[in-house]
Specification:
single chain; binds 1,4-dihydronicotinamide adenine dinucleotide; binds uridine-5'-diphosphate-glucuronic acid; elongated; UDP-glucose 6-dehydrogenase activity; UDP-glucose 6-dehydrogenase; alpha/beta; Rossmann fold
């Protein structure tokens, strides 16, 4: 009989995993402590924006294959495989990961376990967490239960979460016995049958694979942003430079987009957590470049603020700035550590009036930045603006007509913090165009538009 799956923590990762496990044919029970989130999910609604996921949740809740609860007792009773998907945010006062949610979940699940089962960590954790959690769960589970712990890190990207879960680049099984591997192979049998590569290893290596993957991606982005700074100083063009680098398959064609840098609930916290753990293990000096990657990333935000200040004539006082984008990346409503909102907040603190627009993240931005003016459209954000900032590369911004913005802006000056707009289109519509790592471009025919 196919295993009954529980997914503990139904946020961006857990809700996706639960719905995708149901899509693979399993009965799935999602567990959370957030009653509002549970109520929405139980009604077949998604409490956040993620393409394709709402339809999957609705369909599988309606079919009865996917349900939700706050009862750990029920989860412990029915589950054969329990996936742990709770958050592991940065601790408030250190760079290390906060494991309190994971420990709380384990403490609530373990006492109710009554028969052999597999507890599978999916959250991103410091190396050594699985070992500690194994001891914690085995000590709290009733004697002789036969509970085992495995680590199966997740590599999905927000915005592509469903596709990445149902067709992953690879699966990683960190296991402590052949039985643990067999159970994971059963769960992922259909993906393995399609040829998904799998790396089976010990739990410590599995934990480090995940932290290394995110750290490599973050370092790659900071590399190109450091080169962008050099390009700016030298009068070179980082977009052309990156285009040329991408043709080299050894470098690869992704994660080389220069701009305002990386954000989100994962890359920033994960590089800090990896370095913090390396320091604990006495090898921090080997990974010091992660600190540089972090600093370069934060400097990329400040450099966009500086470009905006220059375009405001050296001071934000009495100026109005329109911001296109609030989410940390397009196709998501997630604003955790969003570069767009960090830049907007810094500019507001420096004295400008700010209007922000995002196609999906307006509600989250309003909730977390109540003093910011949240516009109802991209053009509204530009109304009366002395400078317009493009900070999240939603397709609707790349496709927008610069003349429509010119008609409402106070001045035609744009900073493309993502380097994805077509400078020629904006210049032709009378805009002065600035972007990190690129030569400044003055407006062509400024008198032809909005004279
Ligand atoms: N968001 C993403 O794209 C990915 C996230 N990850 C990792 O997955 C983990 C979760 O991340 P997100 O889903 O983004 O976080 P999130 O904050 O969206 O979701 C965490 C969920 O856990 C729930 N929770 C907290 N304590 C709980 C408890 N004791 N019992 C049950 N539920 C509890 C929260 O209410 C929330 O719904 C993190 O370790 C993250 O690094 C890994 C890959 C992708
Ligand atoms: O552990 C996680 O949670 C996930 O973190 C990232 O996924 P995600 O945060 O959803 O988004 P990315 O596509 O990686 O983008 C992260 C940030 O980097 C920025 N970025 C990305 C690429 C690039 O070239 N330049 C750049 O600035 C994005 O705008 C965004 O702010 C990883 O890509 C996933 O593999 C991983 O599972």
């Amino acid at each position: 009989m196919s295993p009954y799956i529980t997914v503990i923590g139904t946020g961006y990762l857990g809700a996706t995993h639960a719905a995708c496990m149901a899509e693979l044919g399993f009965r799935v029970l999602g567990v959370d402590v957030d009653q509002q989130k549970l109520a929405k999910l139980a009604a077949g609604e998604l409490p956040f924006y993620e393409p394709e996921l709402a339809e999957l949740v609705a369909r599988h809740v309606a079919s009865g294959r996917l349900s939700f609860t706050d009862s750990y007792e029920h989860a412990a009773e029915v589950g054969d495989v329990h996936f742990l998907c709770v958050g592991t945010p940065q601790q408030p006062n250190t760079d290390g990961a906060d494991l309190s949610y994971l420990n709380a979940a384990a403490d609530r699940l373990a006492p109710g376990l009554q028969r052999p089962c597999l507890v599978v960590g999916k959250s991103t954790v410091p190396v050594g967490t699985a070992d500690a959690l194994t001891r914690r769960i085995q000590a709290a589970a009733p004697a002789g239960t036969g509970v085992e712990v495995a680590w199966n890190p997740e590599f999905l990207r927000e915005g592509y979460a469903v596709a990445d879960t149902l067709a992953p680049d690879r699966l990683v099984f960190g296991v402590q016995s052949p039985g643990g591997e067999r159970a994971l192979r059963d769960v992922y049998a259909s993906l393995l049958a399609e040829g998904t590569p799998v790396v089976t290893t010990d739990v410590r290596t599995a934990e480090l694979i995940k932290a290394s993957a995110n750290s490599f991606l973050a370092t790659k982005i900071s590399f190109i942003n450091a080169i962008a700074e050099l390009c700016e100083a030298a009068g070179a063009d980082v977009v052309k430079l990156a285009e040329a680098l991408r043709y080299d398959p050894r470098i690869g064609d992704r994660f080389l987009s220069p701009g305002v840098g990386f954000g989100g609930g994962c890359l920033p916290k994960d590089i800090r957590a990896l370095l913090a753990r390396a320091n604990e293990l006495g090898v921090g000096s080997a990974l010091r470049f992660l600190d540089d990657a972090d600093r370069t990333n934060l400097r990329a935000r400040r450099r966009v603020v500086d470009l905006a200040r220059q375009e405001c004539g050296g001071s934000f006082a009495g100026r109005r700035v329109g911001v296109l984008g609030a989410a940390f990346k397009p196709n998501s409503d997630d604003i955790r550590d969003s570069p767009a909102l960090a830049v907007a907040a810094a500019i507001q603190a420096a004295g400008a009036e700010i209007a922000v627009y995002d196609p999906q993240a307006n509600d989250n931005a309003r909730k977390h930045f109540p003093t910011m003016d949240i516009a109802l459209s991209a053009v509204d954000a530009a109304r009366g603006a002395h400078v317009l900032l493009h900070l999240t590369e939603w397709p609707e911004f790349a496709g927008a007509d610069p003349a429509e913005f010119a008609a409402v802006a106070a001045e035609r000056r744009i900073v493309d913090g993502r380097n994805t707009l077509d400078p020629a289109r904006w210049q032709a519509a009378g805009w002065r165009f600035r972007a990190p790592g690129r030569p400044q471009l003055d407006a062509l025919n400024p008198e032809e538009v909005n004279p």
